[in-house]
Write a structure and sequence with these properties.
Order of helices and strands: EEHHHHHEEHHHHH
Structural class: mainly alpha
Helix content: over 70%
Strand content: under 5%
Strand order of the largest sheet: 1-2
Distance between the termini: 57 Å
């Protein structure tokens, strides 16, 4: 005959599928969640304001993470020079638009669409392509050296010096004009345009990966570069395109973030590497 047996202090409760101590922990967690929800509802305005305030910067950080991971996945290089590439484009845009008085559109095209991808392609062709089989430490040392060398090289070639306080401007005229859309937080015109540009960039990247031949080739190289080459795809060409695209995102992020810095100098852009690593993780 079957007999009821006591399982000891950890009694199984068939009504919930949890042991008694686990039910206690679950109840405490549920109570804590309820308190958090009620606290959030009590400060809903503050929470919503913080959400709106963080969206412009958070969207740029997302763009940074995408560009950082794109180069790493296709070449295996942990590109610590990402912040330096962002600085180069931001400084080039400032030099062309503010000091040489170019209009906004040509300055953005040269700094972001032309210069940034060109820097990425040159770095990939001259350095990182030959470091694929090198030890990880060697690749890190090279990218760390570029983090320091690229801004100084640009400053030397263009005779660029640090800007005065709050000298950088955005990519639209009168970017500091504000719009209080929800009555909680006033967005500047720069912030609204930045979020729109980043949304278009992310959607375009998704369409590129999903529907274009080069996007499919990039996905194949991420899975296996050797097998992709056996299928007749030039992995070097795909890697160069990925670096150009990653550098384009770096340049775009640099130009969009520059107005938020008190001075346009390399140091604030070095922190973007930390942001990229944290966001990509």
């Amino acid at each position: 005959m079957w007999q009821n047996r006591t399982l000891g202090p950890k009694r199984w409760d068939v009504t919930t599928g949890l042991r008694a101590p686990e039910r206690t922990v679950a109840a405490l967690a549920a109570a804590a969640l309820v308190l958090v929800v009620f606290g959030a509802l009590a400060d809903a305005d503050k929470l919503f304001r913080a959400f709106l305030q963080g969206m412009p910067v958070g969207s740029v950080f997302a763009l940074i993470a995408i560009g950082f991971v794109l180069a790493y996945k296709t070449s295996g290089v942990f590109n610590l020079a990402f912040g330096a590439q962002a600085y180069v484009s931001a400084a080039a845009y400032y030099e062309l638009h503010i000091r040489r008085e170019w209009s906004i559109l040509p300055a953005v095209v040269v700094a972001v669409v032309v210069l940034a991808p060109a820097v990425g392609v040159v770095l990939e062709a001259l350095l990182f392509r030959h470091l694929r089989t090198a030890p990880p430490v060697a690749r890190l040392v090279v990218s760390l050296g570029l983090l320091v060398a690229l801004p100084e090289l640009f400053n030397w070639l263009t005779n660029f010096t640090r800007t005065s306080s709050y000298g950088a401007v955005g990519i639209v005229p009168d970017g500091r004009v504000t719009y209080d859309v929800f009555g909680v937080y006033a967005y500047t015109r720069d912030e609204l345009v930045n979020m729109g540009v980043i949304l278009v960039a992310v959607v375009g990247l998704g369409a590129l990966f999903r529907y274009s031949p080069i996007g499919l080739e990039m996905r194949a190289v991420v899975e296996s570069a050797r097998m992709t080459e056996l299928a007749g795809v030039n992995a070097d060409r795909v890697s160069a395109f990925a670096w150009a695209l990653s550098s384009l995102f770096a340049g775009l992020a640099g130009v969009l973030l520059a107005p938020r810095f008190a001075k346009l100098s390399p140091q604030p852009f070095f922190e973007l590497v930390i942001v990229a690593i944290a966001a990509a993780a």
